[in-house]
User: Which sequence fits this backbone?
């Protein structure tokens, strides 16, 4: 059987500045990016994002994020997996990939996929410490930290879209209409 | 899907006369071509990545047995059940059996070309299971009761007016013609189905041997809902989709969306491995993976094997001048364009796919754009040879080729015949030097004139030139 041979990498896969590459690619895909100075500042950043989009300040989130001071930022939270009626879902991620402006999420009982998928807006918290250059690096990190891919290993690159009617791109097919990335140290 | 490839010529000329289809094709032409060209230009190592991908696909196909068994072992270890189907019929029986055993009443489906190959929807509906296609294009076609005409953009032949009419009939709501609003209406109609389905059926762009992983590549996110919400997930895919490692997937996914739609990456790449873990609120309790042969092993070990590298991006049809003008339905089976012209005759029998290997101008663009370097024109040429050998071409064509081959092996006869032909063609061209009607080949001259040759053959001109050269060399001496 083959070893984990890494194929040839295109120049874009090894960007001189991963963060700039990540932000540029996010923009191309229609994701928005913001930065919080500390994890504790995330609720305030989320509140201002929701206000700018005129969205209700109510989010469903992964349990590990519930301990942040959401009430202090004026946001009501639902600490449970998302269902079909939730409007905004907040999740973390396993890592992010600069080459393509992608966030990688892994399923766990405490990290339901539904929260990233069902709401119309997905807000994803990304640690800059976990910004990698390529998908190959992400797979190596999964091997190191998790062993093997969990049930769902999903790469999200921008909001859901379709071009099935006359090749006209429409954002918001079956998944989120908006993907907002909040970068933290 | 019923094979109607024998009627390619007839259907193609009908399609050329269909103003609505021609309007759709006019909008489609060039869009994917330009987008791909831009996306490829961004990757400076494109050719190197392409060669590596072709090699790794060859390696997987050459060791298909070992990697499939490794895949089965790992998928089983993670709680999935792997089924093997030698024929389309067997594949359907397996899926219908799973549905029956679990009391499945509703199935949501993300796009799967293999399920089109085997007529899965029909078979499920026959036992009372409601099947809902969830890719927007496939959903439109399900409402229209039509097969896809493109493997990536299945409803490319439909205009928005046609879609608007279908939505009025299905949703009983006021007619919309704004594409964004129509998409929203379909989203709302399908959301209910996503949340209430008992079983989700998806394809798998690749299956990864080292981890027992199946995967979906979509922009809409529909496959994510199909594989996450229902209590059963059934994957149906071809045996040739196996690749050894996660790294191989990383290489191939650099090529696939860029070649298909010109995107740097598809919005959702989802690797699914096994069933839900204890304590998980989403994910299926049962995962079934049906590995389908249905003609694929007919390629293995033959001079056509390179076709199994195919990663289903659709670049060959996007760039094909024949596809661009007649659309996908004329090809008469699931896979249109150059890839279909090679797959269909092999899967369903060369005797049932008459004109497909000839539905080409041999411009060679399909091979140039293929991300895994499949020599599509060469493969079509091989199929043409097989058709000739098996006497499947019309007698006139066979007679013509036999006569040509007889002459071509006899240089002096060949020279005499071409000498005559060149003079005759020059005579036909007259003063204008244009041939308006070619005797016996008037199809060629129906819509255009053929420029007449000057009257002497290449060999005559070349011989004359050589003699001139020799005599002037003599003079210099």
Assistant:
């Amino acid at each position: 059987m083959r070893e984990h041979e890494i194929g040839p990498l295109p120049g874009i896969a090894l960007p001189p500045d991963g963060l700039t590459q990540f932000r540029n690619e996010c923009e191309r895909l229609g994701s928005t990016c913001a930065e919080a100075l500390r994890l504790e500042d995330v609720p305030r950043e989320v509140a201002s994002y929701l206000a700018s989009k005129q969205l209700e300040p109510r989010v469903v989130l992964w349990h590990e994020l519930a301990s942040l001071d959401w009430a202090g930022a004026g946001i009501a939270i639902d600490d449970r997996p998302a269902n079909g009626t939730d409007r905004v879902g907040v999740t973390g991620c396993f890592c992010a990939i600069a080459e393509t402006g992608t966030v990688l999420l892994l399923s766990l009982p405490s990290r339901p996929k539904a929260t990233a998928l069902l709401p119309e807006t997905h807000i994803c918290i990304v640690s800059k410490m976990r910004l990698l250059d390529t998908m190959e690096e992400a797979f190596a990190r999964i091997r190191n930290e998790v062993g093997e891919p969990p049930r769902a290993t999903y790469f999200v690159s921008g909001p859901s879209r379709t071009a099935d009617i006359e090749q006209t791109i429409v954002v918001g097919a079956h998944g989120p209409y908006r993907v907002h990335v909040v970068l933290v140290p | 899907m019923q094979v109607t490839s024998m009627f390619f010529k007839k259907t193609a000329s009908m399609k050329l006369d269909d103003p609505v289809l021609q309007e759709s094709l006019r909008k489609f032409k060039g869009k994917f071509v330009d987008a791909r060209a831009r996306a490829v230009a961004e990757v400076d190592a494109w050719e190197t990545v392409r060669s590596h991908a072709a090699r790794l696909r060859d390696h997987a196909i050459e060791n298909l047995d070992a990697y499939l068994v490794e895949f089965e072992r790992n998928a089983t270890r993670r709680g999935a059940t792997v089924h093997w189907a030698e024929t389309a019929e067997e594949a359907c029986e397996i899926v219908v059996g799973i549905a029956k055993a679990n009391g499945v009443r509703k199935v949501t489906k993300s796009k799967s070309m293999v399920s089109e190959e085997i007529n899965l929807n029909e078979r499920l509906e026959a036992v009372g299971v409601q099947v809902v296609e969830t890719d927007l294009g496939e959903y439109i076609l399900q409402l229209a009761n039509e097969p896809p005409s493109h493997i990536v953009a299945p409803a490319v032949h439909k205009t928005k007016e046609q879609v608007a009419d279908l939505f009025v009939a299905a949703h009983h709501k006021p007619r919309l013609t704004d594409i964004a609003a129509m998409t929203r209406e379909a989203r709302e109609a399908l959301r209910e189905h996503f949340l209430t389905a008992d079983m989700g059926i998806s394809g798998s762009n690749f299956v990864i041997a080292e981890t027992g992983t199946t995967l979906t590549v979509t922009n809409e996110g529909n496959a994510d809902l199909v594989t996450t919400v229902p209590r059963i997930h059934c994957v149906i895919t071809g045996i040739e989709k196996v690749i050894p490692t996660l790294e191989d997937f990383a290489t191939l996914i650099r090529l696939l969306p860029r070649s298909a739609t010109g995107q740097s990456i598809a919005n959702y790449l989802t690797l699914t491995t096994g069933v839900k873990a204890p304590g998980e609120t989403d994910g299926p309790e049962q995962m079934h993976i049906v590995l389908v042969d249905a003609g694929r092993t007919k390629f293995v070990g033959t001079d056509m094997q390179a076709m199994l590298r195919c990663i289903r991006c659709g670049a060959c049809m996007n760039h094909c001048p024949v596809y661009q003008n007649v659309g996908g339905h004329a090809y008469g089976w699931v896979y249109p364009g150059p890839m279909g012209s090679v797959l269909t005759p092999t899967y369903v029998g060369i005797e049932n796919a008459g004109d497909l290997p000839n539905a080409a101008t041999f411009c060679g663009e399909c091979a140039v754009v293929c991300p895994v370097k499949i020599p599509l024109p060469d493969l079509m040429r091989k199929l043409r040879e097989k058709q000739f050998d098996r006497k499947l071409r019309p007698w006139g064509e066979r007679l013509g080729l036999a006569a040509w081959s007889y002459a071509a092996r006899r240089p002096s006869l060949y020279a005499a015949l071409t000498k005559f032909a060149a003079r005759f063609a020059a005579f036909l061209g007259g003063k204008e030097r244009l041939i308006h009607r070619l005797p016996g080949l008037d199809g060629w001259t129906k819509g255009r004139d053929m420029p007449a040759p000057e009257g002497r053959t290449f060999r005559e001109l070349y011989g004359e030139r050589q003699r001139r050269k020799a005599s002037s060399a003599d003079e210099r001496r």
